[in-house]
């Protein structure tokens, strides 16, 4: 491998993506690379890819633009890592990945890169986009309505996407009140399961309730994963406020009780609204 080493490229800070590709080739070199990087495969790297995508989303949510710059680089590294392994196996390369996504974007935007008119509503463009994607799935022998919804998505997001797909072919409640009625039904079944059924059956009923809650979000125009992230952030912010108020009294949560912490929680809420 010595004759293919390109040290000048490695240290050229203005070389862009070619520099990063060369860095990855060197890291994966069986003779001179990093032992840890050499050992990795698609399965071992996939969890890091998911983690980096979440860290990108987190930086955006916090509006931390310097952090986002770094996180986008980390996410780009994941693509470079997977494509390096694909190239080693003779499956694909970074260039073929770039070509495929470029072809896809051109094909999915005929109103920008083709002869179709741009004089369409956002709703019409979305409908056209879905028709193009359906044709692509048909070409991959993915004929089922729910085919192609990634198994590796977070379960709540996947529920949302599955229901969205089913709704396109008319399998959907017509009114949001119908969904709310179903939530009441599922909640009742969960309470009954808690009192009379096994833990496995309780888990099943709880899953049914969460699935319908995701559907309610779709009917309300709320993406449930984003809503839950926001709720998590709000809980952290308010609980931190409770801890800060306790600390001002020389106390910690373990020195307090539910009644006191609940009162402080209400104080934090009022302070946020004032």
Automatic annotation (TrEMBL):
Entries under InterPro entries matching the protein? MazG-like_dom, NTP-PPase_MazG-like_C, NTP-PPase_MazG-like_N, NTP_PyrPHydrolase_MazG, PRib-ATP_PPHydrolase-like
Which Gene3D superfamilies does the UniProt entry name for this protein? MazG-like
Domain NTP pyrophosphohydrolase MazG-like positions: 40-113
The reactions it catalyses are: ATP + H2O = AMP + diphosphate + H(+)
Keywords tagged on the record: Hydrolase
Q: Name one GO molecular function term.
A: ATP diphosphatase activity
Enzyme Commission number: 3.6.1.8
Instruction: Name the source's superkingdom.
Output: Bacteria
Cross-referenced Pfam families:
MazG, PRA-PH
> Which biological process annotations from GO are given for this protein?
dATP catabolic process; dGTP catabolic process; dTTP catabolic process; dUTP catabolic process; response to stress; TTP catabolic process; UTP catabolic process
Family according to the record: Belongs to the nucleoside triphosphate pyrophosphohydrolase family.
User: What is the name of the protein in this document?
Assistant: Nucleoside triphosphate pyrophosphohydrolase
Taxonomy, top ranks, is:
Bacteria, Pseudomonadati, Pseudomonadota, Alphaproteobacteria, Rhodobacterales
């Amino acid at each position: 491998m010595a004759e293919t080493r390109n040290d000048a490229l490695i240290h050229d800070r203005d070389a862009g993506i070619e520099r990063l590709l060369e860095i990855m080739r060197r890291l994966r070199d069986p003779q001179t690379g990093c032992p840890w990087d050499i050992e990795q495969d698609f399965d071992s790297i996939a969890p890091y890819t998911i983690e980096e995508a979440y860290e990108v989303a987190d930086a955006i949510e916090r509006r931390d633009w310097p952090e986002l710059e770094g996180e986008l680089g980390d996410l780009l590294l994941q693509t470079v890592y997977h494509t390096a392994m694909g190239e080693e196996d003779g499956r694909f390369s970074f260039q073929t990945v770039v070509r495929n996504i470029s072809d896809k974007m051109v094909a999915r935007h005929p109103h920008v890169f083709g002869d179709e008119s741009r004089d369409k509503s956002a709703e019409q463009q979305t409908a056209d986009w879905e028709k193009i994607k359906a044709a692509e799935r048909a070409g991959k022998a993915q004929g089922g309505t729910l085919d192609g919804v990634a198994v590796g998505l977070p379960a709540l997001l996947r529920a949302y996407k599955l229901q969205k797909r089913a709704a396109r072919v008319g399998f959907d409640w017509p009114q949001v009140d119908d969904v709310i009625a179903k939530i009441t039904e599922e909640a009742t079944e969960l309470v009954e399961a808690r009192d009379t059924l096994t833990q496995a059956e309780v888990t099943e009923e709880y899953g049914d309730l969460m699935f319908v809650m995701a559907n309610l979000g779709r009917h309300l125009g709320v993406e449930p994963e984003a809503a839950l992230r926001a709720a998590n952030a709000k809980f952290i912010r308010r609980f931190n406020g409770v801890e800060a108020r306790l600390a001002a009294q020389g106390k910690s949560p373990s020195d307090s009780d539910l009644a006191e912490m609940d009162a402080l929680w209400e104080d934090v809420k009022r302070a946020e609204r004032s």
